Amino acid sequence: MEQTLGRSLFLAHRAVHDELDRRLYEHDASVWNWVLLREAANANGASQRELADLMRIEPPTLVRHLDKLAEEGLVERRPDPDDRRVLRVAVTRAGRKRLAQLHGVVHEMDAELRRLLPARDVAVLRRALTRIHEHFTEEVVSGHA
């Protein structure tokens, strides 16, 4: 029986995720560290809940990762000036430096992935993955999931 497309997609995702995690581990980091730093830097002072939503994880899971990054001095939690119950996440100067280092590892792996396929296949894959993501994201947003 032929493997389902969803299973193939999962296995490819898992292999890339695990390899990226292994490479980041060599720099005392993880995929979660990189994703959280990237999202926090891009979101520019988002609340913890907003970051959890962006990363599509539960807030308690985010807090665990934030605690580790805060201990390392890579992020700071700051009270929202309008609502003291809300904590805003800011990436520190050290966090931005660390993010740049981790981006280097990620971009090396991206280049390796791109070398595996002809440029045309890379373009087709990017479009296909975007279409899949948008399809299922639209279902979640519209309440059909």
In a few lines, what is going on in this structure?
By secondary structure, the chain is mainly alpha-helical. 70% of the residues lie in helices and 7% in strands. It is globular.
What does this structure look like?
The structure is a single chain. The chain is mostly helical. It has a domain at 28-117: Winged helix-like DNA-binding domain superfamily/Winged helix DNA-binding domain (Arc Repressor Mutant, subunit A). The protein is 70% helix and 7% strand. It has helices at 5-25, 31-43, 48-55, 59-71, 93-116, 119-141; strands spanning 75-79, 87-91. It has a two-stranded antiparallel sheet with strand order 1-2. β1 (75-79) and β2 form a beta hairpin. α2 crosses α4 (59-71), α2 (31-43) packs across α5 and α3 crosses α4. It is globular.
Distance between the termini: 28 Å
What string gives the helices and strands in order?
HHHHEEHH
In spatial order, strands of the major sheet run 1-2
- Largest β sheet strand count, sense and barrel closure: 2 strands, antiparallel
Structural class: mainly alpha
State the helicity in percent bands: over 70%
Helices and strands, with pairings:
Layout: H1 5-25, H2 31-43, H3 48-55, H4 59-71, E1 75-79, E2 87-91, H5 93-116, H6 119-141
Antiparallel strand pairs: 1-2
